[in-house]
């Protein structure tokens, strides 16, 4: 990566000279987004030492994937700002969390909180929604400065809905406002309300979405991203034949050409919670809530034994 004196990128991340497809994946975790924010700020500062003060992470990653708070960080790093450069520098992410979290997670009266838990989410989300809409404005998914992938979950259809820049460029109904996508993927059940919005396809037909946090199905976007990468890379390979120089040809099964940096948001202290006898008295929702990351943990354990799936992990911390 190199920059001219006026900040113009001379060797962008998508250059055909690159030998790897670079992927950044950011987990969910609410205000604990400060953890990957700290890591990303450090990484970007080191890249700036090499390539100049205008270097941004979006210049180095072909794809950025994020769930929940990771989806918000993804948008901050890739949404276009002044001079078509990223809206946020990585060092500004933590400042955003520290300044806005007290208003996003404003505590109610204890009695009202208990009553609210029965009839609705813990927080109304109004401040968060307003802030996201203010920051992202009318920016749509296809306008991100590098390709992104953000998972959500449709509670009406009971299935994941995955938003990606590559798909948005060819499927009009998936080219949603970036603000709607961020509000949706951050709508953690019981904490923030689900989000409804509509889009239109190329013929003007409406498509409705009833979405909540993508962490309902996978809090680690890399789980769904391995499968989705195969689809995305097929699309990328086709693009090269139409003289699109953003990517180089790569076989979908050639994992050796994928470099993945997967960032977590800390982990809770291990506790003994339920026995098999206890769980037999409850509905399946407990199992879903307690085990929705089990697949990701299983994949990580297996890959680690073989020296694969590099991942930045942190010391255990208490959940917020």
Automatic annotation (TrEMBL):
<feature type="short sequence motif" description="GXSXG">
    <location>
        <begin position="66"/>
        <end position="70"/>
    </location>
</feature>
<feature type="short sequence motif" description="GXGXXG">
    <location>
        <begin position="28"/>
        <end position="33"/>
    </location>
</feature>
<comment type="function">
    <text>Possesses non-specific lipolytic acyl hydrolase (LAH) activity. Hydrolyzes phospholipids as well as galactolipids. May play a role in disease resistance.</text>
</comment>
<feature type="short sequence motif" description="DGA/G">
    <location>
        <begin position="213"/>
        <end position="215"/>
    </location>
</feature>
<keyword id="KW-0378">Hydrolase</keyword>
<protein>
    <recommendedName>
        <fullName>Patatin</fullName>
        <ecNumber>3.1.1.-</ecNumber>
    </recommendedName>
</protein>
<dbReference type="GO" id="GO:0047372">
    <property type="term" value="F:monoacylglycerol lipase activity"/>
</dbReference>
<keyword id="KW-0442">Lipid degradation</keyword>
<dbReference type="Pfam" id="PF01734">
    <property type="entry name" value="Patatin"/>
</dbReference>
<keyword id="KW-0443">Lipid metabolism</keyword>
<comment type="function">
    <text>Lipolytic acyl hydrolase (LAH).</text>
</comment>
<feature type="active site" description="Nucleophile">
    <location>
        <position position="68"/>
    </location>
</feature>
<dbReference type="GO" id="GO:0004620">
    <property type="term" value="F:phospholipase activity"/>
</dbReference>
<dbReference type="GO" id="GO:0016042">
    <property type="term" value="P:lipid catabolic process"/>
</dbReference>
<comment type="similarity">
    <text>Belongs to the patatin family.</text>
</comment>
<dbReference type="InterPro" id="IPR002641">
    <property type="entry name" value="PNPLA_dom"/>
</dbReference>
<feature type="active site" description="Proton acceptor">
    <location>
        <position position="213"/>
    </location>
</feature>
<dbReference type="InterPro" id="IPR016035">
    <property type="entry name" value="Acyl_Trfase/lysoPLipase"/>
</dbReference>
<feature type="domain" description="PNPLA">
    <location>
        <begin position="24"/>
        <end position="226"/>
    </location>
</feature>
